[in-house]
Structure of Anti-sigma factor RsgI-like middle domain-containing protein:
Amino acid sequence: MKKSGKVTNVKRSKVYILTPENEFAIVKMNSITPVKGEMYTGYEFYEMHKGLKLLIFFILIMGLALSIYFMKYTKTSTSFIINMNAEFKIHVNKDNKVVEIEGLNSKGRSILNTSSFFNKNYDDTLIRLYNICTAKDYFSNDYLSKKPYIIIYINGHSKNINLDFSSFEEYINYRNLDLIINQNGKSNK
């Protein structure tokens, strides 16, 4: 907003004026050099309060910290493919939590349309996927006569491969199935 008045003081780019309504105002200096005691017109100068500056700074720092944490948390450190008649590609972060899961065939995609596995431990996710496949009768006698096992493919180029499938293997063996873990072409069976 434009204000006019007598110049009382000049500091850097600020001009202090007294308006005809006897109101003190600070305006931005424009191309005309102000002289004390003369009339001057300029746009009102708004200075941000220090508390507001601190609040904005704090919000920016918190936003940056949260985005860095979120990026690190959702960054995939290892991924593997599991085939149990329904195929899934599971991406796991450094904390062994599922950050992404993809259905690689129609059966896998249909399961993912009805269930969420984000932020779950990969071992719990595998057991839950097995239970859903069993409930949907993906382990039919016809399928089991051809393949009485579940295969996990681990890419050998994955960083920090520290996956332990022993509890899932026990769970599967208890149900008279075998778990084959194929890491970069080498199988455990």
Remarks:
- The chain has five helices and ten strands.
- The CA atoms of residues 48 and 142 lie 74 Å apart.
